[in-house]
Amino acid sequence: MLKWLDKLFARSAGATTEISATRVCPECGSRLIGEPAAPDAAAGGSCPNPDCPPRVRQRVILWASKDAMDISNDTALLEQLVRRGLVLDVAEFYRLKVKELAALDGMDPDRAKVFWDAIHASKSRGLFCVLFGLGIPQIGSGEAEILAGHFASLEALFAADFQQLSRLTGVSEAMARCVVRWADDPVNRKLVRRLRRAGVKLERD
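The structure assignment produced for this chain is given below.
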């Protein structure tokens, strides 16, 4: 009887360990939050780590997209920049050198110069494109257009509190909450300062 119970508990412990293991992000090892999509799902929930490689790639690709800063839609090239550690946040685009770009797989000096020129041209895209490109939760292109219509600069937008934002036409409480939360994050504030120092236009045309 005791041997049978020992085996039962051993199987239960093993099952618990297996279930727990599936609750870890396969990319960065962070504990996932939320519930699996199905009881038998191999993994579930979302990774809370902002520096998880897929989330970094997503932010970089969005920033470079045509509807945002119009740098490049070459996903493989953008992913290579992230993988090599050259661009781990969007401000790092503006530190790239032609020589670094030319050394990437599939690049040559001419293509590197075209890419570099696109990066520097993106500095003048203005408030709407920056807002959309930052990937603030709840702020797609339509929401970015609404906010850019209400505020003349990113600084003015981020100075507004939840009550001020939520009273504006077209701005939902969810939008207002996400903007305030994003702007209150010291990491994000530092990112905006770095973009400004790089010469990125953060004002409306």
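Interim note for the steering committee: The chain has three domains: 13-47, 53-124, 127-197. The chain is about 55% helix and 0% strand.
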